Amino acid sequence: MSATMGGRLAATLGAAAVVLMTIGVPTATADGGQSAVTDPKAVPSPGSLATGGSTDACDDTTAPGWITTGEPTLTARTTAPGARFKVWNAAGDKVFDHTAQTAGDGTVQVRPTGLAEGAGYSWQVWPDYGPGGGKPTAACHFGIDATAPQFTVESTDFPASGSGATPLKYAGQTGTFTLKGTDQGSGVACYQYVLNGTMSVGSPCQGAGTVAAGADGTATLRLRPTQWGTNVLTVQAVDKAGNTTPPVSYTFFAPSNPNPPVAPGDVNGDGVPDILLPDAAGNLQIISADATTTAPTSTVAAVRAPGGAGWNGVQLLHRGWDRAHAPVDDLIAHQPGGANLSLYRNFDMGGFARGVISFGRDVNPFDPPVLPEGFNADWSKATQLVPLGALGADQRTSILTVEDGNLWLFTDPAPLYDYNTFVRLSTSGAWAGYDLVAPGKAADGSLALWSRNRATGELRTYPIAKRADGTYDFAALADPAAGTVIGTFPVAEYPTLGSSGDGDGDGKPDLYAVTADRHLLTFSGVTDPKDLGVLR
Question: Per-residue pLDDT averaged across 357-377, rounded?
């Protein structure tokens, strides 16, 4: 397409007025009562992804749509034995003039050939009664764009492999990617993209992995590669006529961070603890504890949950990591009543896509320990599980559970979280009526447990003092009624309570809650609630 034709296109289809498209079209006169031609249409129907609709623009006010072929079919209906079709270009030159016979059902059609790409095509149809003709249709309009746009991908944060440039960001950090496109026809509408995956098939310019192009054809992506090493960003451009480029691969290297941020509770490597909650479809949402909305930074598909039926109702805990991928949290999940726990090792900064390991309560048969009275052989009676975080040099989390109404501590984790030490912390069975919340370590390294009395809504705190030898004193957990009340959160109003640890960075653990109408609230400590909005 020539630069002149491209200029005509922009002037015509990009403006609300379409006066240019009717230049040179003869003025119709009354036909003395003879039948008019009706229902003029172009096939394929002219459309635009910019407006999301199709129109033949058979008036002087509607912005015309685009056709992706130089040989459209023009149709109409008439009671005349035939009809005469004329087509003009934007300059007013007649480029097609042909008469066709009417079919038995009253339709008549022609197929112009040789139409060049560009804007400003107008066309009309007259009934063919011989000399004198009859009343024509109104002038209809379309543009032709049969060529996909061209584009480039650039990034100084993560330069293309082989460019010789040094990345400015590390894996786990967000980088900027600039998409620059040109289209001599309708203009770039959007870009579709996927990072380290397969391009989805669906409606163009809709759904996830789509970014709209600006008026100049550019767009900006802010993406966070979660895996260190080679990454591939796949992009394709779509113009307003619907022409789509083949997928283009932009390969880049994301180096590992030599000084990664450390924040227990963080699963995506940004140094901020995260809140993990399922959405209405059962996908697991990862929401930063310092977020201002409920928009997740990423999600884990429902099919990845234990059993494959979604994350709703699954007990989740994360507050520590395997040395193989420090320092982002692993995820441990438990289906209520299940004999085993499911371990999702976090090698991909919150993707949890590297497989699942199931583990139980293994007792060494060659050197069996003395088991506490009431010890259960598996996890099936654990009605609640909360992570305390690392209690020693190992960064794997220890776990508190409620079983048969009593509180149990599982600590001294071996590789893959097989726990070597089991301690019964209470004997009264009174913990059955409480919800446990693990707030994580305070700035001074001390621990605590919070619990909510489900009958009264009272939230209590229990100190877990650190002894001089580095061990912890759990004596305060013997009686749930002995804790200090620090707030009231009725179950009817706040069905879900949890803690992200130190979510706001002020040195003290923070609470979060999900209300009955699915609003996510975050707190500074247990006060000053902030409503982040409705969960998806």
Answer: 83
Give ∠ CA 437-440-442 in degrees, rounded to 5. Answer: 130
What is the rounded CA–CA span in Å between residue 182 and residue 293? 35
Q: Please, what's the largest Cα pairwise distance for the chain?
A: 111
DSSP conformation letters of 300-342: E-GGGSGGGS-STT-EEE-----GGGTTS--EEEE-TT-SSEE
Spacing of C-alpha 483 from chain mean position: 41
> Which distant-in-sequence residues (6+ apart) come within 8 Å of 86 by Cβ?
94, 96, 97, 123, 124, 125, 126
Q: What are phi and psi for residue 466, nearest 5 degrees?
A: -95, 125
Which residue is it, tokens 């052989």?
A: 377
| The pLDDT of residue 183 is above 80 | yes
The residue written with tokens 């996830």 in the block is: 208
Type and span of the H or E element at 99: strand 94-101
pLDDT tens sequence across 319-353: 999 888 889 999 999 999 999 999 999 988 899 98
Under DSSP, the state recorded for 11 is H
Distance CA 520, CA 59 (A): 51
Query: How far apart are the C-alpha atoms of 106 and 274, rounded to whole Å?
Result: 66
DSSP character string of 239-261 = ETT--BPPPEEEEEEEPPPSS--
Asked if 352 and 332 touch (Cβ cutoff 8 Å), the reply is no
Cis check: omega of the bond before 44, within 30 degrees of 0: yes
pLDDT of residue 228: 86
Q: How far is CA 368 from the centre of its chain?
A: 48
> Which tops the pLDDT comparison, 172 or 477?
477
Higher pLDDT, 252 or 5: 252
What are the tokens at 228? 């260190």
pLDDT score of 394 = 82
d(CA 298, CA 209) in angstroms, rounded, equals 12
Q: What is the pTM of this model?
A: 0.73
Residues 286, 339 contacting (CB under 8 angstroms): no
In angstroms, rounded to a whole number, what is the distance separating the alpha carbons of residues 20 and 90? 6
73 closest CA partner among 174, 142, 170, 22: 142
Task: Provide CB contacts within 8 A for 473, sequence distance 6+.
Answer: 464, 465, 466, 467
Phi first, then psi: what are they for 145, rounded to 5°?
-140, 100
